[in-house]
Amino acid sequence: EMSMSTGVRRALQAQMRGHHRTAAASGIRAFSSDVDADRQKLKNAKRVVVKVGTAVVANSDGTMALSRMGALVESLRELKMEGREVMLVSSGAVGLGRVQLGLSKEQVNSSFIDKQACAAAGQEMLMSMYHMMFNRLGCRAAQVLITQADLLERHRYMFLTDTLDKLTELGSIPIINENDVVTGGSSGPQVFSDNDNLSAILASGANADGLALLTDVEAVFTKPPDEPGAERIKVWGKGSEVVLGEKSGMGRGGMGSKITAALVAANGGVTTCVASGYDLTNIKKVFEGADVGTLFPGRSRPNKRQRWLTLATGSAGRITVSHNFHVTMLAGRDPPLRLTDVIAVDGAFAAGSVVSMLDPAGVEFARGIIQKKSAEIKDNLPNSPSESFASFTATHEVIKAADMFLLG
Fold first, then answer.
1. Cα–Cα distance between 49 and 270 in angstroms, integer?
2. Local structure of 258: helix, strand or coil
3. What distance in Å separates the CA atoms of residue 212 and residue 143, rounded to the nearest whole number?
C-alpha cells in the first residue's frame, strides 16, 4: 500500500496552517506596470486551466510521484486563493495502472485492451490521491473523463462545457482526463490526439482566460534546446519558426503537439503559456505574468457555436465553393451558401454534419453545418447525371449563414 512521504505530509499540514486568507473582493490583481503587456492577460486571468503530463504525477519507475503531486496541488490551491477558477487536465492513469497490474511498457503499447485495463486501474489511484491531497488543503475536486464523441457531438459538447461551468461556480476543481478505458484503440474520428490538445479545446470551450501547458522543457525553442544556438521563443508570432527534434515530432505529447495545442487554445481566445512542468513553481510564475516559457497570445474569442465548429469537431466531408463566394466570405460578408455556388462535393455525409469548405484551389478556409445530405447535393449540381431535381432548387440554402465560420 502506498503511503505519503513525511515531507509531503508536513508540506500539506503547513499549507493548511499557513493559508487562511480569503481572495480579495475584486478577485484578481489589477494591472501592474512590472508585467509585460503580452503576459498581463495571464496575470488577470479569472478562469485558468493547467495541464500536466505523466512525468509530473509519476516517477521514472512508474510509481506515484507524491512530492511533485503535493507541490502541484499546493500551486493550484494558491491560484484558487487568489480568486481564480481552476481546472486541471492530468495525464498519468495508464502509466500508474501499468505498474499496478504488473505489465510491461511493450505489452501496453502493443495492445489497446491492456492499455484500457491500465487506465481503469490507474485512474482510481490518481483520483484517490488528488482527492485526498485537495481535501487536506480544504479544496474540493471532481473527476471529469472525456471521450472523442463528447466533443464530436455538439449537444454533448455543450453539456460538458456547461458542467465545467457549474463545477467551477460551485468552487470545485475539475480534474480532467481522456477516458482511456473505452477508447477502443482510438478508432473512428479524432478531435484530439492527446491531453495537450484536449486541454486546449476544453480551455476554449469552457471560456478560460489562461492555459498553462506544462512540458519537459523550459519553453519552445528555435531548435531542440540541447543543440548549439537554440534560443527560447518568448512570444510566439506569425514569423516564429521551430526545428523539431526526432523525439519532439507532431506525435502524442511531443513539442510539436504542444505548439499545435497552444495555437488551438489561442485561436479560441485563451492566452497560453508553454513552460516546464519539472519546476512546479512555474504555475505561479505563469499566472503572475513572469517571463517564463513561451507565450501564445489569445485572439478575439469566437462564440461557443463557432468554437465547436472549428476546434472541437471533425469534418464529415468537403464542399468546394465558387471563387465569388470565397471572396465574399473573406471580405467579411456572411451570405448563405446556395447550390449555385457549389462546385463539387467530396465524401458521403448526412444533413446536419459539419463539413470543410474549400476554395477553388482546394484549400480549407471555413467550416459549416450542412443542410442537405451529400447525395442530394450531388444530384442537383449542374451537369449531374441524375435527373432527380425535385428535392430542392438553386435558391435553397446548402449551408445557412449562421452555420459557417472562417478558419484562421
1. 10
2. helix
3. 19
Amino acid (one-letter) located at 372: K
Inter-axis angle of helices 195-205 and 255-267, nearest 10? 10
What SS3 string covers 123-181? HHHHHHHHHHHHHHCCCEEEEEEECHHHHHCHHHHHHHHHHHHHHHHCCEEEEEEECHH
Grid cell, residue 14, equals 503547513
Sequence-distant (6+) residues with CB within 8 A of 348 are: 317, 374, 375
Find, among 282, 284, 271, the residue nearest to 214 by Cα: 282
Give CA–CA dist 135/167, Å, rounded: 16
Total Cβ atoms within 10 A of residue 31: 10
CA distance 174 to 149: 19
Name the grid cell of 6: 513525511
| DSSP string over 15-68 | HHHH------TT-S----TTS-GGGHHHHT-SEEEEEE-HHHHB-TTSSB-HHH
- CA 154-155-159 angle, to 5 degrees, is 115
pLDDT tens readout for residues 109-137: 888 899 999 999 999 999 999 999 999 99
Residue by residue, DSSP assigns 365-396 as: EEEEEESS-HHHHHHHSTT-S-----S--TTS
Phi and psi at residue 276, to the nearest 5°: -75, 135
- For residues 244, 247, 249, 255, the Cα torsion angle rounded to the nearest 10 degrees is -70
SS3 state of residue 88? strand
Picking from 117, 137, 243, the residue whose alpha carbon sits closest to that of residue 183 is 117
* Residue 305 cell numbers, joined: 457555436
Q: What is the pLDDT of residues 363-399, one digit of tens each?
A: 888 888 899 899 989 888 876 555 444 455 656 789 9
Q: Is the pTM of this model over 0.70?
A: yes
Q: Tell me how many degrees the CA angle 353-177-8 measures, rounded to the nearest 5.
A: 165
Q: Which of 318, 311, 340 is nearest to 405 (CA)?
A: 311
